[in-house]
């Protein structure tokens, strides 16, 4: 057996000292560079040490803090609700009093450099005497959560604002998760569905309304959920005999849907449309009667005399096309054996129709063709604003009336000069079809106005 020499013992002791020194250095480096604040207090609660992070969080140097206790009024400690923090509930005080850790305590401290309250999460842990187990020191780990709390407060406020808005909008609103379960329903949603939130939340919309499966609602909601973009549609729901306008769009959590009852709106629109149709039909009959059947007011392409021909023969512009149209019509009338007067009448009507297209719509297209029984037919099509319903009687019958500041002889001159005039007009354009035969027809009225 070999007995260690004193020299070997000294080498081992030196190595142990070096290891201890290295360990202390590492711990000191960690203490000084860690992001969390660390504060040491003695058994009386007086601060004896703090790392740089704690100095930044508390807004003072270690020299200023040393000797202070947690109950020093200069901390201006408050609870989350803003009320003063009782001295005996401070986490370091509790840890020293009970010998047990006080963890996750949120406290507001006045920061003298920033002149504001900063919010810290505090974990205080006592160090116990190995002999009697009594607390001899306490160390507190501090985390600055001020920015997080501000962000949470802002998010909560924004959420309250959104909820306030949604609860007061006139549309029903509901949110669905990715399984089409209700996650939110506003007050109007309860009213429009005649169901409480408790009856809807957590349930799949298809379970609440199984008759919607396969409907337009079903397919449009799935389309929006799939990320095809927002969808807006109107659909009738037989279950409540109600027309709805829906707007749905995908969200990170599922689907958001705005729903409006438009039954009254649809009925009013249908009534307006029916009234306008009756007015137009009445006007059509009156205009046909007072013009001895010469004026045919059309409501659709189907009312025109056959399908519209390929009107590419003559292009009408403010500077050209009108002369060529007159010449083409005159030649067609001559080829069908029209007398000079009948040819002149047709050319006069064509000139007026072409000029109307140029003046009111900036131009158009026209073509001339012949039909059986030597009928010459002239089509003039433009894309102007058309003649409004209320202006039709005056525009067609009143000499000199115009909506564009022209002489306004157009429509009445066409009626005097041709056998038949077909008129189809809308906000997207006007089609005028003139027909003339070789033989003179009956006058407009016996008195010719």
From TrEMBL:
Annotated InterPro entries: Biofilm_reg_signaling (IPR052155), HATPase_C_sf (IPR036890), HATPase_dom (IPR003594), PAS (IPR000014), PAS-like_dom_sf (IPR035965), PAS_4 (IPR013656)
SMART domains per the UniProt record, alphabetical: PAS
Pfam families to which the protein is assigned, alphabetical: HATPase_c_2, PAS_4, PAS_8
Database matches in SUPFAM superfamilies: ATPase domain of HSP90 chaperone/DNA topoisomerase II/histidine kinase, PYP-like sensor domain (PAS domain)
Top-rank taxon, per record: Bacteria
Gene3D superfamilies assigned to the protein according to its UniProt record, in alphabetical order: Histidine kinase-like ATPase, C-terminal domain, PAS domain
CDD domains registered for this protein in UniProt: PAS
Protein name according to UniProt: Uncharacterized protein
Organism: Capsulimonas corticalis
């Amino acid at each position: 057996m070999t007995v260690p020499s004193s020299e070997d013992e000294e080498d081992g002791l030196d190595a142990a000292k070096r290891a201890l020194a290295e360990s202390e250095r590492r711990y000191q480096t960690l203490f000084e560079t860690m992001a969390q604040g660390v504060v040491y207090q003695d058994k009386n609660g007086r601060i004896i040490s703090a790392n740089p992070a704690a100095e930044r969080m508390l807004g003072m140097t270690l020299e200023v803090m040393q000797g202070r206790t947690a109950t020093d009024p200069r901390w201006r400690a408050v609870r989350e609700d803003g009320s003063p923090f009782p001295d005996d509930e401070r986490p370091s005080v509790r840890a020293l009093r009970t010998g047990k850790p006080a963890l996750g305590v949120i406290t507001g401290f006045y920061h003298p450099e920033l002149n504001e309250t900063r919010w810290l999460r505090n974990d205080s842990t006592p160090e116990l005497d190995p002999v009697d187990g009594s607390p001899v020191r306490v160390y507190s780990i501090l985390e600055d959560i001020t920015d997080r709390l501000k962000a949470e407060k802002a998010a909560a406020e924004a959420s309250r604002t959104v909820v306030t808005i949604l609860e007061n909008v006139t549309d029903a609103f509901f949110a669905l998760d990715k399984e089409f379960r209700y996650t939110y329903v506003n007050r109007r949603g309860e009213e429009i569905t005649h169901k409480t939130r408790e009856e809807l939340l957590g349930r799949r919309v298809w379970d609440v309304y199984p008759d919607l499966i396969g409907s337009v609602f079903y397919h449009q909601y799935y389309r929006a959920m799939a990320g095809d973009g927002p969808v807006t549609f109107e659909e009738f729901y037989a279950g409540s005999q109600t027309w709805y306008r829906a707007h749905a769009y995908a969200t990170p959590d599922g689907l958001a849907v705005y729903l409006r009852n438009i039954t009254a709106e649809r009925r009013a629109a249908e009534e307006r449309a029916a009234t306008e149709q009756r007015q137009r039909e009445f006007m059509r009959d009156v205009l046909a009667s007072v013009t001895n059947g010469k004026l045919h007011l059309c409501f659709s392409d189907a009312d025109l005399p056959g399908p519209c021909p390929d009107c590419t023969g003559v292009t009408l512009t403010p500077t050209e096309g009108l002369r060529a149209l007159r010449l083409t019509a005159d030649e067609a009338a001559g080829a069908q054996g029209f007398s000079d007067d009948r040819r002149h009448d047709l050319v006069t009507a064509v000139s007026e129709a072409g000029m109307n297209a140029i003046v009111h719509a900036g131009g158009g297209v026209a073509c001339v063709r012949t039909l059986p029984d030597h009928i010459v037919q002239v089509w003039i099509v433009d894309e102007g604003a058309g003649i409004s319903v209320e202006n039709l009687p005056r525009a067609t019958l009143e000499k000199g009336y115009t909506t564009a500041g022209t002489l306004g002889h157009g429509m009445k001159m066409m009626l005097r000069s041709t056998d038949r005039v077909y008129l189809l007009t809308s906000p997207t354009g006007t089609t005028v079809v003139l027909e003339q035969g070789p033989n003179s027809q009956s006058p407009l009225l016996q008195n010719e106005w």
